[in-house]
Design brief:
This protein is an alpha/beta fold. It has 3 domains: 123 residues, Methylthiotransferase, N-terminal domain (Rossmann fold, 3-Layer(aba) Sandwich), CATH 3.40.50; 229 residues, pyruvate-formate lyase- activating enzyme (Alpha-Beta Horseshoe); 57 residues, Beta Barrel (OB fold (Dihydrolipoamide Acetyltransferase, E2P)), CATH 2.40.50. It is 35% helix and 22% strand. The protein has a 6-stranded parallel sheet, with helices on both faces. It has a 5-stranded mixed β-barrel with strand order 15-16-17-19-18. Strand 13, helix 13 and strand 14 form a beta-alpha-beta unit. The longest helix is centred in the last third of the chain and has 24 residues. It is globular. Bound molecules: S-adenosyl-L-homocysteine and iron/sulfur cluster. S-adenosyl-L-homocysteine binds next to strand 13.
Length: 436
């Protein structure tokens, strides 16, 4: 069969999709970029916010017409929405053939085969993994970069968040397995890995000997041929001294820290069950900048948590001013069924949320631009990823701090390191020219 996968959501989902593609390819199926000609369309779904779920329903409903013309086409829905809704999803979307949970993608090829001979939809949604996630084959989108999940699931239960409910409890993969996987990836042309976890800082707590995240990084730092190590996400309550030191000392670990703050008000943070106060967060930021003055700091911020007041929101703006993030992923709170916050109701009116969101964006965009502007005149090493998305014939390179630089250059530079003199700064990227 020709198959196509549509992915919603986070890096973990993007990675799972690459594994699904790898498994399907190993079973003799062929990837196609064109959904209209696919015999199998897989949706890997996200439920972290209502918006993502609405988009999924729209997308799958849109395939109804295609399926009416080609009834043999198989539609599979997996990932977090499937995990949460289970059979209920089939009531909403009766033309779906396969529903599979977040712990079941390994069986996707078999589920598809069953659906081909079955008159009824096939549904497999387990509550948890019985085995730690292994290294299923993956069909990667990019040759030079790979996602490497080091710990799946989450134990934190932030009150707004559905992730622990759909991804289950934390399961770490042993250091040796991960090192082997990275070695294989490097042999396959990878020069940069991103270590993934909802909270990488709690890596290893469930493993024999409790290896810490910093130790894992130092092991992976030893892999010959690997050039860059990135990681995401760090929960502020668990960011250890050792991890900050590893960032400073291990030469392959890139100077970028994604440290979601979520909100500035200590009262709201308590309501979110984040387990740090505003001052704790600012203290960590101070320590990070003191150790690594050139680091890029990014964050996630939410506005409109059920009882967030104008005063609370101003605390968020205050943190943004003081932490000086390079970039922030900003979200409007949406209640998720089954979470404690959802029981509080959705108390902040939509217009108020929208207004706070705009104000937050304005402040953050100004700071992003200021931080980028400070780099003008500097020469920065960057890895050339390929043609830029702007489609104007320029190339795109990425700095260790995860900033994008657009510049003119020949195709022979792709997948190599260059030094670039930064000539111009924009809010979300830089521009410059290659220098010797
Ligand atoms: N594990 C990561 C976050 C994973 S979810 C962490 O702890 O930081 C990614 C982001 O989505 C979160 O950081 C949060 O900002 C946002 N998010 C999660 N639940 C949400 C909800 N119910 N409404 C709006 N945004 C939400
Ligand atoms: Fe969700 Fe909190 Fe876990 Fe992140 S740490 S996935 S926000 S529960």
């Amino acid at each position: 069969m020709n198959f196509h996968i549509v992915t919603f959501g986070c890096q973990m989902n993007k990675h799972d999709s690459e594994r699904m593609a790898g498994l399907l390819a190993r079973n003799g199926h062929t990837w196609t970029d064109d959904m209209d000609e696919a015999d199998l369309v897989v949706f890997n779904t996200c439920t972290v916010r209502q918006h993502a779920e609405d988009r999924l329903i729209g997308n799958v409903a849109g395939l109804k017409r295609l399926k009416a013309v080609r009834p043999e086409m198989i539609i599979a829905v997996g990932g977090c929405v499937a995990q949460k809704e289970k059979e209920r999803l089939l009531e909403k979307l009766p033309h779906v053939d396969v529903v599979f949970g977040t712990h079941n993608y390994v069986n996707l090829p078999q589920l598809v085969e069953r659906a081909q001979v079955s008159t009824k939809p096939v549904c497999e949604v387990l509550d948890a993994l019985d085995l730690p996630p292994n290294g299923a084959p993956s069909l990667r989108e990019e040759k030079h970069h790979a996602w490497v999940p080091i710990v799946v699931g989450c134990n934190n239960f932030c009150t707004y968040c559905v992730v622990p409910h759909v991804r289950g409890r934390e399961v770490s993969r042993p250091v040796e397995d991960l090192k082997n996987e990275v070695e294989k990836l490097v042999a396959d042309g990878v020069v940069e890995v991103t270590l993934l976890g909802q909270n990488v800082n709690s890596y290893g707590r469930d493993l024999y000997g409790k290896p810490q995240f910093a130790r894992l990084m130092s092991e992976i730092n030893e892999v010959n041929g690997l050039e860059r190590i990135r990681f995401t996400t760090s929960h502020p309550k668990d960011l250890s001294e050792e991890t900050i030191q590893a960032l400073a000392e291990l030469e392959k670990v890139c100077e970028h820290l994604h440290l979601p703050v979520q909100a500035g008000s200590t009262r709201v943070l308590a309501g979110m069950n984040r387990r740090y106060a505003k001052e704790d967060y600012l203290r960590i930021v101070e320590k990070v900048y003191a150790t690594l003055p050139e680091i890029a700091l990014t964050t996630d911020i939410m506005v409109g948590f059920p009882d967030e007041t104008e005063e609370d929101f101003k605390e968020t703006l205050d943190v943004v001013e003081r932490a000086r993030f390079d970039y922030a992923f900003t979200f409007i709170y949406s209640p998720r069924e089954g979470t404690p916050a959802a029981k509080m109701g959705d108390l902040v009116p939509h217009e108020v949320k929208a207004d706070r969101f705009e104000r937050l964006l304005k402040v953050q965009n100004r700071i992003s631009l200021e931080k980028n502007a400070a780099l003008v005149g500097r020469v920065i090493q960057a890895f050339v990823e390929g043609p830029s998305k702007r489609g104007n014939g320029t190339l795109t390179a990425r700095t260790r701090t995860n900033k994008v630089i657009n510049f003119s250059g020949g195709k022979e530079l792709i997948h190599g390191m260059v030094n670039i003199l930064i000539e111009e700064a924009r809010t979300h990227f830089l521009m410059g020219r290659v220098v010797r």
